[in-house]
Structures are given as structure tokens and as C-alpha cells.
What does this fold into?
Amino acid sequence: MSDPYSPAPPGPAGGPGPEGPAAAEPILRQPFPWLHLLYAILFGILGWIMFWLIVILLAPLQFITIAITGRANDELKQISMRAIHYLAELLEFVTVTREETPFPLGPFPKD
It folds into this structure.
């Protein structure tokens, strides 16, 4: 996976170019990803909300189910796993290790 926000690698000899530093061309930088930053802030807030939904709603509900029935609810496990995967996608986007935008601008994780 290529990173569009990293500078170009040096020349073949490890220097700036094949002719050495005197003939080096200036390195062109990518423009600052303002849109990604804006989305990262919004997805960070959404990730914070998802974290607390998992901690306050899904985990206690599973423990209540275990206390009543003696076993974990499989459907609630699947919902929890999808929420955890979604939270991971949000964190990957915020830390710029993922380029594709998560849900609601992209697909919701399947598993």
C-alpha cells in the first residue's frame, strides 16, 4: 500500500538523485490533506461515541444476558464484533493508516 503523504524515496545510491546532491531536483511535496484532517476530527468524535456505546450498552447487556440465561447471546456477540471492527476502522482512518473513509461515507464492516 502506498502512502500519498510520505515524501518520495531517495535515488538508487541512497542520495537525492543519480548524479549526486549537486544535480538534485527539489522534492515535490503533496499538499496538506486538509479534507482528511477534517474527516479525522469528525470520525474521531464518532469513534469516541462508538467506544462508549460498546462500554456502556453492549458489554453490560451481554453480562445481563449471561446472568439470566447462563450463556452469552450469539447475536449480541456479532453486533459487538461489528461495532469493534467499525471502531478499529475509525481509528485507522484517524491515524492515517487507512485511506478509505469509514461508514457513513464508506461501507460498514461486514465482520
About this structure: The first helix runs from residue 34 to 69. Residues 1-30 form one domain. The chain has two domains: 1-30, 32-94.
